[in-house]
Amino acid sequence: MASIITVSGLTKNYASGFQALKGVDLEIEEGEIFALLGPNGAGKTTMISIICGNVRASGGSVTVAGHDIVRNYRESRAAIGLVPQELHTDAFERVIDTVRFSRGLFGKPRNDAYIEKVLRDLSLWDKRHNKMLELSGGMKRRVMIAKALSHEPRVLFLDEPTAGVDVELRRDMWKLIGELRQTGVTIILTTHYIEEAEEMADRVGVINKGELILVEDKTALMKKLGRKTLTVTLSDRLHALPPELSEWNLSLNGEGCEIEYVFDTQAERTGVSSLLRRLGDLGIGYKDLNTQQSSLEDIFVSLVHQEKAA
């Protein structure tokens, strides 16, 4: 699949000496949902701001839909819709007016049918004559998405799209983002909610201290770096783990009724079979076995910790 965004050697240095980005390289494919994860201050918003033309890079280059963001600013910016983390709207402006105005900013001719479709898709049509100050926080965020889509961009950036919204609305937003992808829009989102990336993203990038430390297909990443936890539910309670089980990394949980074993799914030998045999040799009976794959959050925390230790 062709790349719609190409980032090459991107750097950003501030006058204070702080280096927000350190030679970032990234290709984003057309039509995908790409999640950019990282702790606070990692460089997520800085990178998005540079790609969208709101912040000037110190070095490197970026192209969007084949247009250099510096030499062809108008063309590259017209291909981008941006939903910022902070909500900036005129409190006394009507919903439909603020969305129409955003379309006009990009020189697009008036298209009431398209604006109606966007507002209906975002469940905003019934609110079209409401002033912004009359809307809830979740509805205001929907308006920000409508504004970003008003000029029919090929790429949509969502900077912390569900920050400050309740769980139910967050699920609605996830559904909406999935539907937007079906229309062919490429979506790049930054998020603190790991489950957001796990739910929606095709690929995941992890940025820390201005460096992109990993870009991977989400499924492949979880398979490659994920661990599994085997929970053995015992027939009888144990007061302590026998020393004969010391070669496995075990913990005794559930008031002595469960043994947990964390193992590497990519190891040549996981140790599961030998553990179960040893339990049988020791006369330790069990009535249930359960395995659970580590989540994307576990992987993310592990990667960031490795980077800090390096």
UniProtKB/TrEMBL annotation:
Keywords in alphabetical order, please: ATP-binding, Nucleotide-binding, Transport
Q: In terms of domain of life, where is this protein from?
A: Bacteria
The cross-references to SUPFAM superfamilies, in alphabetical order and at most eight, read: P-loop containing nucleoside triphosphate hydrolases
GO MF term set: ATP binding; ATP hydrolysis activity
Give the protein's recorded name.
Answer: Multidrug ABC transporter ATP-binding protein
InterPro entries per the UniProt record, alphabetical? AAA+_ATPase (IPR003593), ABC_transporter-like_ATP-bd (IPR003439), ABC_transporter-like_CS (IPR017871), ABC_transporter_ATP-binding (IPR050763), P-loop_NTPase (IPR027417)
Residues covered by the ABC transporter domain: 5-234
Establish whether keyword Plastid is in the entry.
no
